[in-house]
Amino acid sequence: MLTLPLTLVLLLAPSILADPLPRELVRRADASYRTLSTASNPDWMLKVPDATSLASISIPGTHESMALFGGDLTECQENFGASAAVLTAQLNAGIRAFDIRLRIETDNKFVVHHGAVYQNANFDDVLNTIDAFLAAHPSEALFMRVKQECTGEIGSCTDVSGQSSFIDIFDMYRDNSPAAQRRWWAPSVQRGSAAAVPNLGDIRGKIVLAVINGPQGGRTEQYGLAQFSGWNDGDSDFVQDNYNVPNTGAIATKRDQVRRFLDLTNSADQSKIYVNFGSGASLFAFPDAVAGGALGTQGVNPFLLIYLGQGTDVHAEVHRTGVLMLDFPGGGLINKILSFNANL
């Protein structure tokens, strides 16, 4: 089947495909899917010892963490409110890894986008919301991927012209936002030097920047952690992000990609962080279908909840999940991921 670029899909979807699937088949809720608020884990890292490497911690995360608007093809998370209110709900549930996509706006500001769609929030909302949460829950630490969202192609957004470069604006926030100054883990936000994987005791109350990706993928300068020097668009070292799911029949392939990478996470270098995206989409398989399932095909989220609950009599041992980046995670799945951490 012909695969269309996501940017083109975003532009064409409203006009060429009204509704590819009966929505009641993909909007049901269960322990794995669309039940974020049933999990309550605002201080779960409190029980994890300081000496624990970030690589050893099983972390639930969200893909396109603030993608709430624009219709079924662009919405990736339950809507708990614009202006980053959704982050508060995710943080309280136990989410600690975030995927933030930014567009350059007038006056050298960042606003949050998913493709061409503005998500009714700006970067100050993100930083201030996280700052408030970490002030109330100082035991916690966050992991964040930042991406320059606009490619300027048809169906994508275009950065406002006449502004500073993306990384210059990022540095302006880093150096001038009180929230950013309090919360960025400094070794991870330096343009010229990447950071080693930290222990939890070094980053409590902080945001660890994993990487800044450019609009076409690829790492920008040396920001983030050194191990992610090869984080590109899609799959790369330590990252599984096969985001093209061309139709609902291909959800099974996506499930297998997630499973294989989860097995790798448990068998490969245990000093490294592995980031496993459970998300995917196309014109014929919207994000909610990939996450929750559709037309008799099991979604990634219910598959993961079952797989993580099985023992070594069924498959290879799972002793850590790595960072699992999910669309529409349910409370039961969040709690299951957290259960792989010591003392939880």
Provide a short characterization of the protein structure.
By secondary structure, the protein is of the alpha/beta class. The chain has helices at residues 6-16, 85-93, 123-136, 166-176, 178-183, 200-203, 251-267, 287-292, 300-309, 331-338, and strands at 59-62, 97-105, 109-114, 117-122, 142-148, 207-213, 239-240, 275-277, 293-294, 297-298, 323-326.
What's the topology here?
Layout: H1 6-16, E1 59-62, H2 85-93, E2 97-105, E3 109-114, E4 117-122, H3 123-136, E5 142-148, H4 166-176, H5 178-183, H6 200-203, E6 207-213, E7 239-240, H7 251-267, E8 275-277, H8 287-292, E9 293-294, E10 297-298, H9 300-309, E11 323-326, H10 331-338
Parallel strand pairs: 1-2, 1-11, 2-5, 5-6, 7-8, 8-11
Antiparallel strand pairs: 2-3, 3-4, 9-10
Helix pairs in contact: 2-3, 7-9, 9-10
